[in-house]
Amino acid sequence: MERTKILVTGGAGYIGSHAVVELYEAGYQPVIVDNFSNSSEVVMRGLEEILGVTITCYAIDCADELALREVFLHEKTLRGAIHFAAFKAVGDSVQKPLAYYHNNIGSLLTLLKVMQEFEVSNLVFSSSCTVYGIPDQLPVTEETPTKPATSPYGNTKKICEDILRDVVAAPDSSLRTILLRYFNPIGAHPSALIGELPLGVPNNLVPFVTQTAAGIRERLTIFGNTYDTPDGTNIRDYIHVVDLAKAHVVAVERLLKGESAAVETFNVGTGRGNSVLEVVQTFERATGQKLNYVIGPPRPGDVPAIYADVTKANRELGFETTTPLEESLASSWKWQQKLIGE
C-alpha cells in the first residue's frame, strides 16, 4: 500500500528530523525541504541508518516560491505539511530581528500560497510557548492570553499564528491547521544517530551542558540567579524530543481523519517545570559528569518561568509524554559522546 506523503519543512533540523523518523515509523512517507542553513547534511545519513531507507530531501529555501512549487509539482500526492522551518534562538533574534522576520514569516507565507495553489489543506504548525510572553499565572493553558512577545523570535511565532487564523477564516479557505505550542525540547534519538546539532556556540541550555561536560566549552554560564523562582534560576518545561515528535504524528492523523476543527491549538510539554540548576544537577546525577558552571547576568528576552498545562492535549489528542528528565539528559550525553567519537 502506498504511503501517505507529508511535507516536512526544516526536516533535517533537530525537531524535524525526529518527526521524520516518527512519521515514517507510523506508516507515512515524509518529504523533506531544508536548505541546511541551521542543520547539517550528516542528519540525512543518520535518518537513513535509523530507517533503512533514503528519505527524499529537497535542499531548497522554503521561502523560495519557485523552488517550493517545483517540489509540489514533483511530489504530486502530498496530503499535508508540517512547518518547522524557522530560526529559533531567542537571544539571536534580539541581535538579528530582520533575519527572523524575513525567514520565519516569509517561509510560512510562501508555504501557504503554494499549498493553496496545489489544494493541500492540512498543516501542522510549529509554534512556541513564547507566545504567552511573561504569563500572569502558571501553568499556562491554551486559553492563557498571549502577550506582547519578549523577543523578535517570539513575535514571529505570534504573528504566524495570527496569519494562520486569518487564512483559515477566509470565506473560500480549505485550510485546516493545528498549532503546536512547544515548550523546551531536549534529548536525542535512543540510537544516538540524530540529536541536537547546534552550529557554532549553542543557544539552548542542554547542548551547552553536554559540550561543557565533554570539555568543548570551558564552563557553563547560568544566565541569572535572582529570578522569582525557588532557586533563582529560570524555570522551563523540558520535553524529550521523541515525545514531541510523536505529537506531530498524532496531529497529522487528526487532520487527515477530519477530526479537527478548522484551527486548533495545543500545548506540548510535560506539565512540569524544572529550573536551570535542577537540570544541571539532574544531568550530573544521570551521567556521573561534574559540570563547571558560573552565574552570569540575565539574558535579554528571557522569561523567568513558564511550563505547560497539558490537559487539553491529553484529553483531545490522547497525547502525553513518557520520558523522565533524567532519561532525556542521559540521551543528550550519549549523543554528545557519539559526536566526540566522529
UniProtKB/TrEMBL annotation:
Enzyme Commission number(s) from the entry: 5.1.3.2
Subunit-structure text: Homodimer.
Family in the record: Belongs to the NAD(P)-dependent epimerase/dehydratase family.
Keyword Flavoprotein annotated: no
GO biological process, one term: galactose metabolic process
One Pfam family hit: GDP_Man_Dehyd
GO molecular function: UDP-glucose 4-epimerase activity
Gene3D superfamilies, alphabetized: NAD(P)-binding Rossmann-like Domain (3.40.50.720), UDP-galactose 4-epimerase, domain 1 (3.90.25.10)
Pathway entry: Carbohydrate metabolism; galactose metabolism
Name by which UniProt lists this protein: UDP-glucose 4-epimerase
Keyword NAD: yes
NAD(P)-binding domain: residues covered: 7-329
Cofactor: NAD(+)
GO cellular-component term (any): cytosol
Keywords in alphabetical order: Carbohydrate metabolism, Isomerase, NAD
Reactions accelerated catalytically: UDP-alpha-D-glucose = UDP-alpha-D-galactose
Signal peptide interval: none
